[in-house]
Write a structure and sequence with these properties.
- By secondary structure, the chain is α/β, with parallel strands linked by helices.
- The chain has a single domain, classed as Rossmann fold.
- 31% of the residues lie in helices and 29% in strands.
- The protein has seven helices and twelve strands.
- The strands form three sheets. It has a six-stranded mixed sheet. It has a four-stranded antiparallel sheet with strand order 4-3-6-7, with helices on one face.
- A hairpin with a 2-residue loop joins β6 and β7.
- The N terminus is likely disordered.
- The chain binds adenosine-5'-triphosphate and magnesium ion.
Amino acid sequence: MTERQHSTGVAVAQEDEGTPIVVAEDVRHSFGSGPQTVHALRGVSFEVRRGELTALRGRSGSGKTTLLNLLGGLDTPTGGRITLDGTDLASLDEAGLLALRRDRIGFVFQSFGLIPVLTAAENVGVPMRLRRVPAGEREERARTLLALVGLADHADQRPGELSGGQQQRVAVARALANDPALIIADEPTGQLDLETGRSIMELLRAVVRGKGVTILVATHDPNLIELADRVVELRDGRIVDQGAGAGTP
Ligand SMILES: Nc1ncnc2c1ncn2[C@@H]1O[C@H](COP(=O)(O)OP(=O)(O)OP(=O)(O)O)[C@@H](O)[C@H]1O
Ligand SMILES: [Mg+2]
């Protein structure tokens, strides 16, 4: 039995692949109160399986970002239950959620979210800094990850000196920094042209295949859906479809 040692010391057996890493049960979320209440999620149940690329689709306002924020522990649901890697998120306090986000989840956003004054390598090093990884080790791992995303020659450039597609590659490398179990990406290609967007999706696809990382990506770009193993569709805060995508090996 081959095992991969996670940064948190939890060993995950390869045969766990295909078992759920995220389980959402009847998740509800509302914003505001009284007549102003917006019911963003109206009872969402689904699973994200380990080692898969799952696409979350749905038109603007359907609840994608709300759901990703809840699954990533950035917000607490009004109702229902979310389990991540066997941990019920409701059982964690603020510090516990912080540690979970730092150690187990990598985030990729539409707007890249890089720190302008830091080089690409330093940006990739930020999550490792939070875990107090020594500078030398940080630097070495950052360069390895930048090579993985095709940016070996751009490690010392700042975000302003990189194209949008290159910046998003840096963000993907940064999401991988702490060897997460799950990467959550919210419309990672939303600010990129079609071709560049596709290359980012192909990079995520390669990360799933090569590193066994699980990725959940929200997108309403139909051209990108086909690279997913599984597609989950949200409409008005409810799941309407869960099917296999075309990216299944
Ligand atoms: N902080 C908030 N306060 C009030 N309403 C909100 C808030 N965040 C989201 N909503 C509402 O919740 C619903 C779902 O929004 P959400 O951002 O999750 O949609 P989305 O699917 O991510 O859309 P998009 O594709 O445009 O990013 C929308 O009606 C939105 O207006
Ligand atoms: Mg959104």
